[in-house]
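User: Structure please.
Assistant: Input sequence and predicted structure:
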Amino acid sequence: MLTVGRNPGLSGPRRRPQKKRSGGETARSLPNVDTSDLPRSNTPEREMHFETSVRNGIRSPWRLALLAVVPAFLALVGASAALAQAATTADIAGGIAADKDYVAAVERLRAEDYEAAAALLENLAAREPTNASVFNYLGYTYSKIGRNAEALAHYQRALFLDPRRRSTRAELGELYLIRGEIGKAEEQLAEIDRLCFFRCREFRHLKARIDDYKKLEARLPDNGQAPIN
């Protein structure tokens, strides 16, 4: 009887060779981009560095989507949260990351000099009347100095220019809570829920603020409105 053995050359799972893309890059590999010289958070300096790298062909434009994360839950959570806001795609594509008024305004926000920041941002808005990011910054800045009517107008302008800005809707929702308009805050929450997947962080943040508002309101003896400090 003949015994048929396994061919040693066929033992183990067979592996398919990876397909090559143009330039010798494998299908699964990504461009190797050195970012060790940059700070981990998105700062104006990082934005300008990236914008220059794109122009010089060092970085790929598709990386805009990776760097353009906007964790802007600005109203009511302090100046540090405002400064954590990363550059948006509009900031970079619109060229405002290198604008002198924009850079100076960010510095004034860091210093909590909101009046000076507002003046600089107003100058920028006059030159960039269709940039939603500028009006978002203006909304935040005016909310910090208690000029809530102006903050509201600027947030609404930002959403008119870009209705899909979830971060702006979260900030606007918090401004409505300051004004005691919880119904309008919940409308913004519903819009965010419609725009994002799996209860995104803008949704979670605003929902937590609304829940806090309701708990505080329920503890008031006269069940009055409870503006959050």
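Residues 2-11, 19-43, 59-84, 86-90 have pLDDT under 50 and may be disordered.
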